[in-house]
Specification:
151 residues; alpha+beta; Glutaredoxin; globular
Length: 151
């Protein structure tokens, strides 16, 4: 009988078989892992079809390669259901942890057509976020979804 390989998540915990990060030993008192920025990538039906695959896994791999999957500049990618902006598919909302080390002006931004972004474009976004640079100053205005309050 072969030895089973033990898989560890980014926090060093043993992972439940078949999962990417679910720890074997659950500790409800343990704090969550810090992040500087959180990217909420729409993965609902229309956006998922536009992406032609699981973009979040590819993005997570890029973050690991860049060393941005842990530490003070950690960027987290999470798949979401519909964000209600289907006409701009695939959309990604950028949320910054302004309580710790985030840039407030990078908080609550919406990026459109992210299914068309190249790896280099994503890496540029990750670099900008991790170094505290404002996305609105460094990306084309066409990258963002305009926001409006309707009465």
């Amino acid at each position: 009988m072969a030895n089973k390989e033990i898989k560890l998540n980014d926090m060093g915990n043993e992972v439940v078989e078949g999962f990417a990060c679910k720890p074997v030993d659950f500790d409800a008192s343990r704090p969550i892992m810090h992040y500087q920025s959180l990217l909420l990538v729409c993965d609902d039906e229309r956006c998922h079809k536009a992406q032609k695959g699981d973009k979040s896994i590819e993005l997570r791999d890029m973050l690991k390669d860049m060393g941005l999957n842990k530490g003070a500049n950690r960027i987290k990618v999470t798949r979401t259901s519909c964000n209600g902006a289907c006409r701009f598919r695939a959309v990604t909302q950028v949320t910054t942890n302004t309580q710790a080390n985030g840039v407030a002006k990078n908080n609550g931004l919406w990026l459109k057509n992210t299914h068309q972004y190249t790896k280099d474009e994503w890496k540029n976004i990750f670099e900008l976020l991790s170094t505290g640079k404002m996305l609105v100053d460094n990306l084309d205005a066409e990258a963002f979804i305009p926001m409006k309050v309707y009465n």
